[in-house]
Every structure is written in structure tokens, then in C-alpha cells.
Amino acid sequence: MGPNITTVDIYKPALDKFKDRVALFAPYLSTCSVEKRITIFNVFILPLFSYIIPFFIVPHDEVYLPVRSLCRKHIIPYAGGGF
After folding, report:
1. Which one of 1, 40, 42, 71 has the fewest beta carbons within 10 angstroms of its own beta carbon?
2. For the chain, how many structural domains are there in total?
């Protein structure tokens, strides 16, 4: 911690790892049902943030929106355009 550290800096390693895991699971996710995609995200991908969230507010534009976008793209059928 320090005077020049922001919440974006704190979330950056978790966000980078999140993006890497999404890329790793992406080929498999495209063949799964929606229910299985949700389970994969809830068990293997989104918990990366569970250690940080109780202590720091999630930066909306820099973290929340990209995470939400990737989740929607890979969970909702037709690259996020279904339903």
C-alpha cells in the first residue's frame, strides 16, 4: 500500500489472471450448455476476485465492465447476443 496505489492497481493481477483463464477455457465453453458455462465461471474463473472484493471497492469502468462483458460473451449463446 502507498499513496500512489489505486484500486485499479490492486485489481490488475486478478483481472489479468481472469482474462488468461477465460482464454484457456474459451474453446471448451463454446461446446458446453449454458448451465455448465455458468458453473465453470462460478467455480473456476470468478473466484479470483473473491479474495480482494471484501477489502476494496471494484473499479467500475476498469474492472467491472470488462469482467461483465467477458462473462456475457462466453456464457450467453451466440457470443452474448442470444436470448
Report:
1. 1
2. 1
